Amino acid sequence: MSNLRTLRPLRTLFLGAPGAGKGTQTNRLLRDFPHIASLSSGDTLRKHVKENTPIGQKVSSILEKGGFVPDDTMVSLIRAELEANKWLNPQASWVLDGFPRTAAQAPPLDETLRQHDAMLNIVVQLVVPETVILDRIEKRWVVMYNLDFNPPQVPGKDDVTGEPLSKRPDDNADVFKERLKAYHELTTPLLEYYDKQGLLHSVHGETSDIIYPKLKQLVIDKFAS
């Protein structure tokens, strides 16, 4: 495992279609650059659902149907997480995974970050062919397994607990086709928003092993050399 450091703080947003591997790329980046923190909007929402918080109750049915949480709810949620983690300062390095997801969410985030001199300094779009994403989603199981890359030792059972594995409610092709369609409709203006700021960089590949070396080199070139 590498133990690299950036020479200046890195505050980035990973964009990519559902199933593009944003979480996987974030985890690999944090292993190589352990001083960088991360915040996943999806994980944060699922935590609220699991804990049955007021926000969790509000968004549970939306997530089960593969829908998108209202902009004002997401902005408030992520702002609160950034404050709680004490990341709203010029020295902090972090990755946002999955937020902002729409062009309407970006200006409120920018305003919050600007007030603390902690603006985004790069936005990375992970580009994976949709045929690959759909195949990946059909084979993905919670909590940690993929039938091709990391299958459980006993089919259908968790290796640690022995409990039956289940797929997330949104892990099927029909739901994901709708999510992909909605993603493109919502995210195209967001990509244009960050492109106009000169922040947008795209990394292409069919697998994590193809994408990650490109992502790592991008971070090194921009922030560690």
Supply the key terms.
single chain; 225 residues; alpha/beta; Rossmann fold; five-stranded parallel β-sheet; two-stranded antiparallel ribbon; 8 helices
Structure description:
This protein has 225 residues and is an alpha/beta fold. The chain has one domain: P-loop containing nucleotide triphosphate hydrolases (Rossmann fold, 3-Layer(aba) Sandwich), CATH 3.40.50.300. Helices cover 47% and strands 13% of the residues. The protein is built from 8 helices and 7 strands, in the order E-H-E-H-H-H-E-H-E-H-E-E-H-E-H. The strands form 2 sheets. Strands 2-3-1-4-7 form a 5-stranded parallel beta sheet. Strand 5 and strand 6 form a beta hairpin. The radius of gyration is 18 Å and the shape is globular. It starts with 10 loop residues before the first strand and ends with a helix.
Give the helix tally. 8
Number of domains: 1
Order of helices and strands: EHEHHHEHEHEEHEH
Low-confidence stretches: 141-150, 156-167
* The CATH C-level class name: Alpha Beta
Q: Kindly report how far apart the N and C termini lie.
A: 19 Å
Helix share bin: 40-55%
What percent strand? 5-15%
Q: Biggest β-sheet, characterized? A: 5 strands, parallel
**What radius of gyration results from the CA coordinates?**
18 Å
User: Quick one: overall form?
Assistant: globular
**Oligomeric status of the shown chains?**
single chain
CATH architecture: 3-Layer(aba) Sandwich
